[in-house]
Amino acid sequence: MNQFPCHSVRCHLHRWLPLALAVLLWAVPCMHSALPTQLNPHDFARLVQLGVLLMAAAVWTFSLPTRSHSRIFAKHWPHVVLGLLVAASCVHAAHPLVAAREVAVFVGLLLLALQLSRGFAEPDVRDRFLDLITIGAAVYGVIWSLTLLIGAALNQDLFAPWEVIFGFDNARFLNHVQSISLPLAGVVLLRPAAPRWLRAAAAIALITGGAILSLYLARASILGLTVAAIVTVTIFGRLSWRYVLTMVATLGSGAAAVGLLWLIWLQHSSAAMTDGILNSHFRGFLVGQAIDLFASSPWLGVGPMHFSNTVNLVAAHPHNVYAQVIAEYGLPATLLIVWLAFNFLRRAFVNVSRLSKTQPVLAAALTSATVAVLVDSAFSGNWVMPISQMWIAVLAAFLLAVDSNDAHAPVQVHQAQPRIILRGLVLSVMAAFTIQAVTEARDDIPHIHTGESMKKPIGEQFLAFRFWSYGWF
């Protein structure tokens, strides 16, 4: 029961925004496959994401703060200092406006998380959101399964399972999403009041999810989910056994089924799927690039997004968010970001631990997803790709929403002129960057406009994903 009834347009927005986003998160990959667009999935998703972030910023501009949000920013000095350091890093960068655009994306993701958390504070909204993303995952899994089986059966030449992934340029981008979506689907499967068809959808989402993780050898996601299971059991003990065992059973059954199918049939009609489980895919080289960039500018970094300003043979991001942050933002900002993140996660852990006494499944799912993301972040670009960025904002919103009962009550504060001006300025900047991105998307090859000629790729690595799929400036 919502203790703070509200019938204003603002309150309705806070309830409908999460539900609209739940549909969009899985609809975007499907829409890309259905709509006549020349954009590839990454660039299509980027434009959709910018629209979502702009909407979240608009809602935030005209919203009152809540007690929960006020607590986050209770100590102003760390955020002011971080803001100054990030601003200095942008000014110091080779292309300050490009750096500022990256910052604007992360500000938008923060605002999205803040607005979603208001809706998630209401159990009905939270449950409907989980229902919708679970149905979306099940629909995606069914379409993928049917495409895999029909394609393998009808293709006379060697079949390429990598091409079955739709709505994502690479199976890895889907795997980033699964690090969060699969743990949350487990909540729906174990909800006693859920109808049978919905629990069946959750089971399908998890079984097909396990099959996808296994077939495409999603090492970072598998490692993240494995570590998450161990951490969850260690923290919550018996309270989490049912959840963890259910996740292992469903994901494991999907992996076993596709493994058996591979041995019996698919391996004889498919192209090679991997070049070795121990292959690092140049992760060491990319981290080394990040370290070199950090060494060239240790105090302010080379600037947000500016790993992409130095063309290399492999990728426009280091596949490690920790190396990426220190290379692009510098040591002082990185230390402050780590300190703020640690305090946020510490508070979230306290709240989730309290939640485990009444809702152990949800507590275990949030813990699992958080740990999986933190592990995955050391080996992938989950903080770079637009869809996985929004899923991370969703997870942050859940952690924000798990607070005391009155934490999300609107705080009646005087909307002082400086506050109004600041919010209006943030919204205007985000709108300007969105318009700039729409302009860039009209190019034959969408890319960052810097006023200079477009950087050429080295060797055969044409696509190097960052803001756009052609990540170089």
Describe this structure in words.
With 473 residues, the protein is an all-alpha fold. The chain has one domain (9-270, 281-441). Helices cover 67% and strands 0% of the residues. The chain is built from 16 helices and no strands. α5 crosses α15 and α9 crosses α14 (360-376). The longest helix has 32 residues, at 123-154. The chain is globular and about 55 Å long. The mean pLDDT is 90.
Can you summarize this structure?
This protein is an all-alpha fold. It is globular and about 55 Å long.
Major pleated sheet: none
Determine the fraction of residues in helical runs and give it as a percent range.
55-70%
Radius of gyration: 22 Å
How many domains? 1
Beta-strand residue percentage: under 5%
Overall morphology: globular
Give me the count of strands.
0
Contiguous helical run count: 16
Order of helices and strands: HHHHHHHHHHHHHHHH
Could you tell me the mean pLDDT?
A: 90
Terminus-to-terminus distance: 50 Å
Report the uncertain regions.
Answer: none
Structural category: mainly alpha
